[in-house]
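queue> pop job 88
queue> type: inverse folding (structure -> sequence)
queue> payload:
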């Protein structure tokens, strides 16, 4: 009986872990202090929603909010940032019941019980207090619509407050919002302009518009607006009720002050609530600070002197962006529709949180879009990314290629990055894709200008972008350069013997920041996967000769990497005896040894290495690289760290373990302090690598192991420890961590070939009752499958956009060969052909143009 009780308790605990999300509530209000969910538009700056509903970390002014430090973000891991309030902004409420008046700020100062529920891109906060006869629910976001980067890049935040009368008497309610004029405040001493606020009474809105009479050449020159939709009052200036810290608007229509002096304006609205009634107040806080070329953390961007933020080419001021939102209220509705679609899933709640969180990196100052002020459409909206906030210039290929978030969620923006940067200013006639864009031309690190892992990864991103297209035009237009970028790797393969054998040798500069030599399993695996991607692209454009060449070398790689570099447990590196001074993993078990297989699986390219050995190697990574207690590991580690991305008893995957020895040779020759720091990488934990391993494990059906890796990472970023929305490596919001979307792709077993109108699913969890979101080239929706009473059903529901489909692939869940297959499109029976092979069923039908609201239903009987 006791054992049964223990089992029940354990089951309850595991279920609790399974569905736990980022929710903080009750009196443990301190758990909110680290939370900072990016809630602005993508590539428009950075603003956090705090765990108590307060907006903070305003980094929209082209004047950096934090010093990133010389060695990067580990200091932010060990000492996470807490909520700051560098200028005055906030929201408050006053409720009146007869002679009783209740006034509160809508943050931790005003309410004793605050519950935060983060569902990026939508943050939800509930404010309650037993002493108050009302409660308030906040929904905060910027329009975020997968496949629509343009409308997901608005420089604004929506704050929707719903007030509920929880008492038993009628009450009147006043809702306030206030905003300090920050135009030129950081540069105030440099000029003589004046902060100026203007109250605006519009048609269906009220607003305070904050600008400056200052010269336009200052970095923080620009304007902000606070708008309340519906009826209300606006005031250019406001006075503070010092008892509760709420700025209440007066009746002023315009107000100015001296440079550097605080000027606050506000808006407010009123309502009357009967018992049980509720009312929603929608505020929009928008901004326009165009001078990105004066950004104090800028690198040597191409055409820097002419650069402005891309959003400033669409809106001349902050009022225009708010007006645009009001005219297009479907943007708010579709954002909420995506939020519902993503979380309407059979996948664990925490898993849905973690695998989408790093998409928010696009809404931080790690990501920028430029308006190049030219007439060339090629430069319109040029995307740029640091490795992490302010650190690591040039949209670095060897870091950024891990990501799946941008390419899957905003495929059109990813295509712009490929054409403008990788095949544009980064491209050499030789086929080299310079790994740091324009920064590479300054002679950074390696004479080749190519990071081998970044080169191969970019080839695979090009294939992904082709898959996430509606037709072949992207591939056809860029095929010549894509072919060159693959050929230069083939040429390197031939350098030593004159023949390509599928294993790279010679110089191999890579993401570990030094040049490696020898036969390296992970870089050659990346090369092998790129060859398979090259074969697929060549076939799609009809280049049969190149397809055959890629296929032939990939087959050699399949045999040779396995024969030469597999030791029975995992894939390793053979050293080059002429370059023993170079760093290496030697006999070590390296976390990225199957990085190429990760990419091949994400793209539906099959196995680049024998399936059995892939599974053995993945098991070895979990066996040898997973650390249960990081502090205990460091006590015995041969290779010491200089940076910490785990502390104390935290768990996760270290980069390289040495169960068969070889750690003594791994550092190579250490010439300086930088190289000493770089060798320490081997004992660090990088979330971008952990995500890819978790995805690879799930792809192979090793779900428990994959969830173990993801869960350990997730718990390192639990809100009581640090900001769940900021996975740190060399810099905050590190872009490598956008590989976090990959485990979701793996969990649903999703494959999509837009130009061929093909889609398939092969769920790895809850196969017999599965549901999850999917994103296509220009559409998104939900997929579900179920097995019940001997019948297998599958449904595809389109919630947004338009999609062509003529082939759908599914797993066969029934015993025996399917005998009857029925296809219904919007409830109408449709002719369908099917074929079954190795437990998969392929359904073929006349091309369907599916639009929002359409659905497909499949019924299979054995």
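queue> result:
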């Amino acid at each position: 009986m006791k054992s049964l009780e223990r089992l029940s308790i354990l089951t309850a605990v595991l279920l609790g872990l399974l569905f736990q999300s980022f929710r903080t509530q009750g009196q443990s209000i301190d758990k909110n202090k680290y939370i900072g969910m990016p809630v602005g538009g993508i590539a428009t700056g950075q603003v956090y929603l705090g765990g108590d509903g307060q907006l903070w970390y305003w980094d929209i002014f082209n004047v950096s909010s934090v010093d990133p430090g010389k060695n990067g973000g580990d200091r932010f891991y060990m000492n996470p940032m807490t909520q700051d309030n560098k200028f005055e902004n906030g929201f408050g409420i006053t409720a009146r019941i007869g002679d009783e008046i209740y006034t509160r700020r809508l943050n931790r100062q005003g309410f004793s019980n605050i519950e935060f529920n983060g569902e990026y891109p939508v943050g939800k906060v509930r404010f309650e207090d037993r002493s108050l006869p009302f409660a308030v629910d906040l929904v905060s976001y910027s329009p975020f619509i997968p496949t629509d980067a343009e409308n997901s890049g608005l420089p604004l935040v929506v704050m929707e407050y719903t007030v509920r009368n929880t008492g038993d008497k009628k009450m009147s309610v006043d809702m306030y919002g206030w905003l300090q004029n920050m135009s030129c405040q950081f540069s105030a001493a440099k000029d003589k302009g004046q902060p100026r606020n203007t109250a605006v009474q519009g048609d269906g809105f009220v607003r305070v518009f904050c600008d400056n009479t200052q010269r336009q050449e200052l970095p923080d020159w620009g304007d902000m607006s606070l708008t309340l939709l519906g009826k209300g009052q606006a005031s250019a200036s406001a006075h503070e009720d010092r008892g509760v810290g709420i700025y209440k608007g007066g009746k002023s229509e315009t107000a100015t002050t001296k440079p550097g002096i605080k000027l606050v304006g506000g808006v407010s609205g009123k309502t009357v609530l009967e018992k049980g009634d509720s009312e929603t107040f929608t505020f929009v806080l928008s901004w326009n600070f165009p001078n990105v070329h004066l950004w104090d953390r800028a690198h040597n961007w191409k055409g820097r002197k002419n650069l402005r933020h891309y959003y400033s080419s669409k809106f001349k001021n902050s009022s225009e962006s708010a007006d645009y939102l009001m005219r297009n209220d479907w943007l708010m509705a579709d954002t909420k529709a995506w939020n519902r679609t993503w979380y309407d899933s059979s996948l664990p709640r925490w898993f849905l949180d973690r695998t989408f969180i790093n998409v928010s990196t696009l809404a931080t100052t790690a990501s920028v879009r430029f308006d190049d002020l030219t007439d060339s459409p090629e430069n319109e909206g040029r995307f740029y990314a640091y490795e992490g906030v302010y650190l690591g210039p040039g949209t670095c290929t060897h870091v950024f290629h891990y990501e799946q978030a941008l390419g899957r969620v905003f495929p059109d923006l990813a295509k712009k990055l490929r054409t403008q940067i990788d095949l544009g200013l980064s491209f050499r006639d030789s086929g080299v894709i310079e790994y740091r864009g324009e920064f590479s031309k300054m002679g950074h690190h390696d004479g080749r200008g190519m990071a081998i892992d970044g080169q191969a990864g970019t080839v695979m991103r090009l294939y992904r972008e082709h898959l996430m297209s509606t037709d072949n035009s992207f591939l056809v237009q860029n095929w010549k350069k894509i072919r060159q970028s693959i050929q230069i790797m083939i040429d390197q393969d031939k350098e030593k013997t004159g023949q390509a054998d599928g294993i790279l040798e010679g110089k191999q500069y890579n993401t570990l920041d030094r040049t490696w030599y020898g036969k390296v399993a992970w870089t050659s695996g990346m090369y092998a996967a790129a060859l398979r991607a090259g074969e697929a692209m060549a076939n799609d454009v009809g280049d049969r000769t190149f397809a055959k060449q890629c296929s032939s070398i990939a087959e050699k790689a399949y045999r040779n990497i396995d024969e030469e570099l597999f030791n029975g447990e995992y894939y390793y590196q053979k050293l080059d005896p002429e370059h023993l001074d170079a760093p290496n993993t030697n006999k070590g078990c390296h976390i990225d040894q199957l990085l190429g297989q990760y990419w091949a699986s994400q793209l539906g390219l099959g196995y680049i290495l024998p399936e059995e050995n892939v599974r053995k190697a993945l098991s070895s990574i979990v066996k040898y690289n997973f650390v249960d207690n990081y502090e205990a590991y460091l006590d015995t580690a041969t290779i010491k760290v200089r940076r910490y991305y785990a502390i104390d008893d935290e768990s996760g995957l270290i980069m390289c373990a040495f169960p068969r020895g070889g750690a003594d040779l791994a550092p190579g020759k250490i010439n300086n302090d930088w190289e000493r720091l770089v060798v320490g990488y081997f004992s660090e934990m990088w979330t971008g690598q952990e995500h890819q391993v978790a995805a690879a494990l799930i792809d192979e059906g090793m779900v428990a192991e994959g969830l173990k890796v993801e869960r350990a990472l997730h718990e390192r970023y639990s809100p009581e420890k640090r900001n769940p929305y900021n996975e740190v490596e060399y810099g905050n919001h590190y872009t490598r961590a956008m590989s976090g979307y990959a485990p979701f792709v793996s969990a649903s077993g999703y494959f999509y070939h837009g130009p061929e109108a093909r889609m398939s699913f092969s769920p790895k969890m809850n196969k017999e009752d599965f549901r999850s979101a999917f994103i296509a080239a220009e559409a998104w929706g939900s997929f579900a499958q179920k097995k019940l009473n001997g019948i297998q059903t599958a449904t595809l529901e389109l919630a947004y956009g338009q999609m062509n489909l003529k082939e759908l692939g599914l797993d066969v869940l029934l015993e025996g060969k399917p005998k009857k297959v029925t296809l219904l499109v919007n409830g109408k029976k449709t002719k369908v052909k099917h074929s079954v092979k190795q437990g998969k069923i392929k359904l073929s039908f006349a091309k369907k143009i599916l639009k929002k609201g359409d659905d497909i239903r499949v019924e299979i009987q054995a």
